[in-house]
Amino acid sequence: xxxVENISKSYGPTKAVNNISFRVRKGDVLGFLGPNGAxxxxxxxxxxCYLSPDEGTAxxxxxxxxxxxxxxxxxxxxxxxxxxxxxxxxxxxxxxxxAKIRQIPKSSLKTxxxxxxxxxxxxxxxxxxxxxxxxxxxxxxxxxxxxxHDPEILILDEPTIGLDPHQIIEIRHLIKSIGGExxxxxxxxxxxxxxxxxxxxxxxxxGQIVGSGTPQELASISGGGLTINxxxxxxxxxxxxxxxxxxxxxxxxxxxxxxxxxxxxxxxxKNKDLGEKIFFMVSKNGWSLTELHREEINLEDxxxxxxxxxxx
Length: 312
Prior knowledge:
Elements: E1 2-11, E2 14-24, E3 29-33, H1 40-47, E4 55-60, E5 63-64, H2 69-75, E6 76-79, H3 91-101, H4 106-119, H5 135-147, E7 153-157, H6 165-178, E8 183-188, H7 191-197, E9 200-205, E10 208-213, H8 215-221, E11 226-233, H9 236-244, E12 249-258, E13 261-268, H10 274-285, E14 288-295, H11 299-308
Parallel strand pairs: 3-8, 3-9, 6-7, 7-8
Antiparallel strand pairs: 1-2, 1-4, 4-5, 9-10, 11-13, 11-14, 12-13
Helix pairs in contact: 3-4, 4-5, 5-6
């Protein structure tokens, strides 16, 4: 559906996007994750044909961004980061205006507007002026304008920025309800947003892609694997020495001693069953095992690891 090949974009001496390539399959919900200034918005603007890359190209459903920008714009619904709205216009008036720009036939205009209002939960506010809407409902309206022409692809740049927790949950549920019907790219620097709404994650830092895949796959890329927490009651130095000799233990973090129990966090080679090895080690030495459990892979740890490494 979306094929990006070696695109780059500079602003003067600053390389905002540096030779990146990726694919988005039909029906995917892809999270484009990175810190502020990483190149996310620039990439989104190139995919939507608002900017032209200095090098490389991208194809949207077979159409090239250099040669077929009008056809691509027809296929994409775009919610930019700043969500530009005309505050003195009414909600329905604004959506009709967007529908006309999108060249929706007059015969189906009302149906399209009504459907966008229904999908985005704007029914109770449809007769208000945009300036009267809360930030959360302005974001809903931004989504409605992106959906008005029933596009195959949605590109949402920081769709929950500036919202309170309740509004974030509402917009998140709205996006998830749309997912499955459409191919969606969500750009964000907010980790919970991406992990809650996206099937796959692409991480960008300093204009380059540093990781792509599910959180589990990203953990593998970043050098991680399984994280195991354990508590062992036994002679401290002996316990540490025994853990250091375990095959498959990539990193051992000493969490200190509490009530005579030595606590550790171990990063394990994902192909090694470190939990079983710890159990037998403790049993062999006659120590007590008070804690042993795997920890869910933390996307935040992966993100920090990947985005703070030096990019080549």
